[in-house]
Amino acid sequence: MSFHVQVNDQPFDAEPRAGQCLRTYLRERGWFGVKKGCDAGDCGACTVHVDGEPVHSCLYPAVRAEGRSVTTVEGLAAKDGELHPVQQKFLDAQGFQCGFCTAGFLMTTAALEAERGTAHDDGKLDDLPRAFKGNLCRCTGYRAIADAVRGVKHTERPCAGRAVGKSLGAPAGPQVVTGTARYTFDVDVPGLLHMKLLRSPHPHARILAIDTSAALRVPGVHAALTHEDAPATLYSSARHEHPTEDPDDTRVLDDVVRFVGQRVAAVVADSEQAAEEGCRRIEVTYEQLPYVTDPEEAMRSGAPVIHADKGPQQRIARVENNVAGEIHGEIGSVDDGFAEAAVVYEETFRTQRVQHASLETHGCVAYFEPKEDGSGERLTVRSSTQTPFLTRRALCALYDLAEDEVRVVAGRVGGGFGGKQEMLTEDIAVLAALRLRRPVKLEYTRAEQFYGATTRHPFTIRIKLGARADGTLTAIQMRVVSNTGAYGNHGPGVMFHSVGESFAVYRAPHKKVDAYAVYTNTVPSGAFRGYGLGQVTFAVESAMDEVARRLGMDPLAFREKNIIGPGDHMITPIGHDEDLYIASYGLDQCLSIVRDAIAQDRSTEEVPEGWLTGQGAAMAMIATAPPNGHYADATVTLLADGTYDLAVGTAEFGNGTTTVHKQITAGALHTTVDRIAVRQSDTDVVRHDTGAFGSAGTVVAGKAVMLAADALAGRLKTFAARYTGVPRHLCTLDAEAVDCAGRQVTLKELYEAAHVQGTQAELTADGYWGGSPRSVAFNAQWFRIAVDPQTGEMRILRSVHAADAGKVMNPLQCRGQVEGGVAQALGATLFETVRLDERGKVTTAAFRQYRLPQYADMPRTEVHFMKTSDSTGPLGAKSMSESPFNPVAPAFANALYDATGIRFTEMPVTRDRVWLAINQQKARRGDSSP
Amino acid sequence: MDLNTVLDIRDASRHEPWRPGDAWLGGGTYLFSEPQPHLRRLIDLSRMGWEPVQILPDGSLEIAATCTIAQLSRFGRTLDAQAAPLIEQCCRAFLASFKIWNMATVGGNLCNGLPAGPMISLTAALDGECLLQAQDGAHRRVKVADFVTGAGRKDLAEGEMLRSVTIPARSLRCRTAFMQVSLYGLGRSAALVIGTLDPADGSFAVTITAATTRPFRLWFALPPDRAELRTAITTAVGDGDWFDDIHGLPEWRRHMAFHLAEQVRRELTLDGAR
């Protein structure tokens, strides 16, 4: 039987496998623009056209493409390279962030545009919520995509030296919209082997025996690795500058499994099929052990001890009580504070388990490449990571390798949100690669993202708030329990951060905290946008709203009376960080934005009859960088053609730091961004970078870039002055040349002169920043909503967000960060939940069970930036990628209270639960039920 | 996703004997969306050559199992029948996007037997009948409302094939009303209620799907009043029949089914009076 298919007008005749989908067939032929987001038909990232009709290629049986013509995103542009109008529109509006979903949106939109005016046209282009039912974007919140489809142009092209503060497009934009941006798995590595993982069916069990012999007999299987093959070394999958921030409780493969889904063995084979088959043939004998999935139960005496074989030397606070980390502190006396209070409110708030759901799954490719000095080979790991340098450090420690033996590099990363501040695949892929001396790839499935990666920490927060009749807070007390799951990665850190800025943002003389990060036999929690603050902010801001109402005060006025002021210290029950202070203050402006929005709002005029309406606000503060040092190196170099090379370590996953780094460099060197090439997220390009987390991309890496670029600008002027004999203060740097008192010395000429003189060092400069001192950023969110008491349906009438990001480097991108953060938080507010059964097994391991916000779910959020400039950040900038998330859930819950009179203390607030609560309230009041 | 245990794909038109590990391949949009490690062969229905959708001489509507949702939607938009709008309403009740419509089939949706299957809602509400063909070629017919027997369960033997669904002509002449809710914007149905009013005799039927583990079609010789409708639903749908999964609490689904049924009743009976 012969097979023929045309792909982007090229013929292919390789026969597909019987059960193969078109997506993998296309990717195996090198069409890497076709992405795997979910592999289940839900996300649309793999959308292609078959004979002109858009389909999800992950569901399309490849054999059915016989005789057909397939167009992928790579075939969308004209032959001469001219972009398809849809591609141009997505560039003009910057309708993407990480870009992993973009090909799917482009192919979908292009198909709709082609359908327009035909007999089949049913108006989808005028009804984007319906048109994009089959397309998920985790980054943007969809506003940018709507603008792209509608042809709104946002990008600016400023002249030389004027880039900072302008809305430049992302440098990778042209690659993103043509499907040529290279993400982690978009590489063709000859001789590549594939790894699949066998995972535990038990929540807690000792492995008594593993028989891999049948697996090894499967044709194509090269190795089956078990705990007997793994190093005994204990480490943490969490990546921090200081590994001591996390307990060492993890092995590459362990002889005890502690959650359903923990990896038990790895099979490496010529194909994924053979590796899967090998996993099915491994026979494991387990001794099942008692398990516990609830953190409160886990802390009680007599509960199963999850890490009984470890202790303080692994930095586990109390092994016998499953406490990974804890903090206790009090300033003043909360008892006295509550005694002084006219109103004391106490309530328990709960937040659920949430998945990052970056559209690119976790994974890496480990391979060998010749060392540059010719002395043999070294290991290279291409990974979907936020922390290339820290992952290299961890791999070197784990396998006793020198740093020059290992290179870790990230391609373009398809979304992170904290989930990739973790070493979840590199450790085991490298184990196999070192064993086999062959390239090995491990690419998670979407299901594995849910049960084999990490989630946001579920929190229970008991909060007690006291205030005088005049609205002065007297005391804040919280007992916080976070569920870190089976391993302590980020457990102590998230717990610690959760009770930092959340306590400090309000002035109260008496504050007390007891916080615990607790092990349970469940999928590990990890770093997630907001790093614990969002969970506790939900409790604090709900309680502030409640106390204000009980005092008969306007909740905004109550906040204004108690918020931290510009000259205040940041005081928590456990003291305050030495290097953290308010280097710019925009919280008052944030609250003014909310006040103005309320005053001017007319949105209730459109509410259907019988619906309830309400409005609510919340605010949050966040440090602009992680504590304990966050380091970045950057190097800027003048090249022979008069352009610049910028090397920086931090990774790009749609956060836009690359754009900002170019803008900063262009500003310092008085040039344009198209004259700057960036090399990044590669352990080869600079000495070190702690990583793209803690919102450090602009504030830390950006500052290192600024220092490097400023230094180079100075050097070029000095060198030009020496070269021309013109006094240095008469030399000015321009895009093409240095103007030396009227004489134009081109940058090319300068470059040649330096080479002739052997002073190339004059043409390059390094920058370094240690992430300290740190400032704080502020956010406030306001909603007006309507609720149908008959159905529980909620509509967001208005969404207003005030962000104090200091000097905004790129308004378009920063707006995108805010919108995306609000959207992700709305998902967690309205429906997202990773559900577990009573054994801790994840039961929602697909997007069909785990609802991500879709186009139809998201309101347009009005984003306002405050007029502040920070004295610590680069050019006055502050961080703004995590923090927009944090005030969203309580703002919504406060609006819901305002509408219904019901205080929702548990996330998410789904329509069924809202209806149920309204109905129960009616029953209590004796109303007649409908 | 790749179905890596599948080693062969066979053309169903060759009528080869059914084996353990075989599965009918309609559009593939369910099969390829989840791991299917128990499968070894796919029996491909795409070359059966069945007319996707047609009006039979008796005025009834025959929808082939292999008719795609896109084909049905396009047909429905041109169909001159009182009940025609219901076709598009049910297509749009899919969680899946229009792109999936290009592949997903009506038969596949029925054979998945999920409570939220909108083709089940459509064909059950219009009193449709399935034509089933056994491996030995024997045919039998069963009402859609009886074909789906529970969440994911259906009256279909191993190797038996759904050939088509037929909608009687008088159903096409009914006035219809459609109501749907979901936990999410344009999301999976948590309750989907369809009413039909037969102009020939004034009879009324209400069909509850999504909120229940299987379709419930309640027929009334004359439109019921509010209380009669409630009583009928309460009598027909047992406590255990309300569907309990992550897409909605059963008590909410129950409430919504009653609420939507009443709205449907009002819509079809003018001001709500008989």
TrEMBL record, chain A:
Q: InterPro entries given for it?
A: 2Fe-2S-bd, 2Fe-2S-bd_dom_sf, 2Fe-2S_ferredoxin-like_sf, 2Fe-2S_ferredoxin-type, 2Fe2S_fd_BS, Ald_Oxase/Xan_DH_a/b, Ald_Oxase/Xan_DH_a/b_sf, Ald_Oxase/xanthine_DH-like
**Which keywords are on file for this protein?**
Iron, Metal-binding, Oxidoreductase
Specify whether Oxidoreductase is a keyword of the entry: yes
What CDD domains does the annotation carry? fer2 (cd00207)
Q: GO MF terms on file?
A: 2 iron, 2 sulfur cluster binding; iron ion binding; oxidoreductase activity
SUPFAM superfamilies for this protein: 2Fe-2S ferredoxin-like, CO dehydrogenase ISP C-domain like, CO dehydrogenase molybdoprotein N-domain-like, Molybdenum cofactor-binding domain
Q: What is this protein called?
A: Molybdopterin-dependent oxidoreductase
Query: Upper taxonomic classification of the species?
Result: Bacteria, Bacillati, Actinomycetota, Actinomycetes, Kitasatosporales
UniProtKB/TrEMBL annotation, chain B:
Domain FAD-binding PCMH-type: from-to ranges: 1-172
A single MF term (Gene Ontology): oxidoreductase activity
Q: Which residues form the signal peptide?
A: none
Recorded superkingdom: Bacteria
Transmembrane regions: none
Species in which this protein is naturally found: Streptomyces actinomycinicus
This protein's name: FAD binding domain-containing protein
